[in-house]
Write a structure and sequence with these properties.
The complex is a heterodimer. By secondary structure, chain A is an alpha/beta fold. Chain A has 19 helices and 13 strands. Chain B has two domains: about 200 residues, no CATH class; about 120 residues, Rossmann fold. Classes of the chains: A alpha/beta, B alpha/beta.
Chain lengths: ~400, ~325
Amino acid sequence: MTVDLRKDFVAYAKDLNKASEDTNIRTAITRAVSSYRSTVAETLERYPHTPELAEEVKEIKRNAIANNDELVKQAMASVERNKGKAFFAKDHHAALEIALGIIGRGKTVVKGKSMLGEELHLREYLEENGNEVWETDLGEFILQLRKDRPMHIVSPSIHVPREQVAEVFSKFFGKEVPPDIAEEVKVVREFMREKYFTADVGMSGANVVAADTGAMVIIENEGNVRLSTGAPPVHIVMVGTEKIVPAFQDAMKVAEVTWRYAQYGVPGYVNIISGPSKTGDIEKVTTYGAHGPKEFYVIFVDNGRSDMAKEEKFSQALHCLRCGGCMYECPIFQVTAGHFGHVYMGGIGAIWTAFASGGMEKAAPLVYSCLRCGRCVERCPMSIEVPAMVGELRERIVYGKY
Amino acid sequence: METKMPMVLDIISENIIKHGNPLALKGSEVASWAKELDLPVKGELLFYTGGEYQLLPFIDSLVKTITHLDQGSKMFSMMMGARNILNKTGINAEKMYASVLAKDKVRYNSVCLKAAKVLQGLGYEFCYAGNEELYSGALLYELGYLEDMKTYVQKVVEVIRKSGAKTIVCLSPHAAEVFKFVYPKMVEGFDFEIVTYVDLIWQRRDKLAKIQSTGPVVIHDSCRLARELGIHQELRDILESVGADVKEAPRNREWTSCCGGPIKILFPELSHVIGARRVNELKESGAEHILTSCPYCLSALEGGRAKGDSAIIEDLIEFLYRGVKA
């Protein structure tokens, strides 16, 4: 079989060129990069133990990925022990089917931001199956209305300026929304509030999972995750298997390093959820669904991760905390944003594209647009050797070894 | 499975494998700079250019061809002008090469000569393989042609071994990188000491003559040199020894910004955008005189300089040569 990549490269080059001429992207990223650099420098100075903690987290992640199969079992057992229901999805289709099986049709779903959700095209799938799904993260909500895709993993709508937000909101809400950021935030707050309390299901991802306790750690700033995982009667977590670490204290370390390199001294909220809402206040009889969800489901998704874990050269890609720091330091990302990406972005995104989200053919042009300059490695708290992995993928592409 | 890659990759990799140079330059062209020096072919220290500075003027003409033509078109494949398709198409590569500006050819060719003279001025004695010198194959490594590289490097090593040298001094950090990290995995007993031009200058920097500079200079750290080879303070030490006023760019040393060069052949426009941004970033230092020490950085930054921008972009070699002439 012959795979002709020539046209893909030409189309991709055109897309990159167009993105590099987009003044919205350029203004937004320039601002974001300079703010990222100064904020991270400041927070690292304020919390000087962070680099050392990152070293510790490297070891935690390395061991966790080496023992991933075992940790998945432990985490699932913990979730069940906590009266939640745990599922394992081998691939993309299984993950979506399990989620749909829990949700059914004709439901309203509020969801938090999740890269795994993007990987699975979760919202689109649930919508196609007759559900109403709302992205509650402001950036994701803007993209949902624009039918657009994320341009950064932490700040998805980084490329959309306030004027364009006002335009899309005015159209959606059927009233004039001024290009004023505070007003824009307010109008979404009002709209979403009603959705949280009428939704049938709340969905979220998780930044870290502790296998020993089944605790899901979710970092956020807007408070949308608190509401969407707290208000509806059902909470479904969909999380990649690489997010599991052995113990609760490990999870805290991973979480702190993640948010620190995502430029937060401390995030607005850290949610720790390990089971359905419960009370024993009347006669010490445990009853589920007190104020929060009565039902709690966790779907652990593999979808290419165990293949990555098996390969010595690629397992470190699973150490990625998704802090997004590398992207701000990537010269290609700085001028093209998420166009240097498929679902996952930047150099590390090219690796994830090959294994988990699109496959080698989708990954090939991305793999060849990496400069292999190595600055992402300097920034990465896990020192993930993206250039080396890119080199390895290039070899596989050239010789069709995939 | 077989993969059809963009044609420019096929042509470059085939040129390296068949002609020992990414653009199929002839050995005599690559070595023409050395005529006046009459360097020995054997010695302890081997001066290695890899033909990289020499091919710079042609890269731009290649890139122009790529930029103006759809890479999927028939015209493109004909216009590539590389010698390995010369017989099939009847297009004369020489003609395309001849279109290169004479002053660029003279400039980039002279970098090797200047490097040799600076080293000689510091008392280094070295040999050079001349017409026989082969390109290191760094692009094969860079672009994923590793299986081909395994065969190719054996030829390169044969030429290197003929010199009897124990140490190889590389002008290009890319050559130094592959000799240091890739060759030992592919060639049994590849135990040469690998140094860069910068290393040797640094060791004897006290002997360098002072340079009358026109103003402050700023260093563009090459990614390979700064991050892979860990050389950045050395450049500053050297410049300090010659009395230069060194300014620092906002991103420098191990945090240096890439010049955009590595994607030049596949994504020329984007490469150009990145080069232009880096030039501006370097100028934020307050210096308009940019110095680098990598052939591809030199070419990419030159390409990224805006029309009418008075900034001077030079290789460290060119800068240090001012002291030799004085």
